[in-house]
């Protein structure tokens, strides 16, 4: 299991604390430093069952600079979104946990972290 975190994020710290409390075996990925490639983002999106705009933080300053809220949300725009997430990792919603069963969750709540733990994490 891997968790993508920003250490400055309280939701990320809470998720890591819960994983530790549950004795989970996991790897931390500081995705702002170890930026996911477009391929890794595609893989996580498939595991999440989401589209790139579903995990984009549209309130970030860079999102406003890019005009992200105005971007089309359709299959023809998917690669543009993925490229933006890879080029500007601050745009990626956090934390994301990839579970050992091949799925993933956006773990912004204790319930979501527990869900990931229940997936063979």
TrEMBL record:
Belongs to the ArsC family. Keywords: Oxidoreductase. InterPro entries: Arsenate_reductase, Arsenate_reductase-like, Thioredoxin-like_sf. This is Arsenate reductase family protein. The keyword ATP-binding does not apply. CDD domains: ArsC_ArsC. The keyword Oxidoreductase applies. It comes from Streptomyces stephensoniae. Gene3D superfamilies: Glutaredoxin (3.40.30.10). PANTHER family: ARSENATE REDUCTASE (PTHR30041).
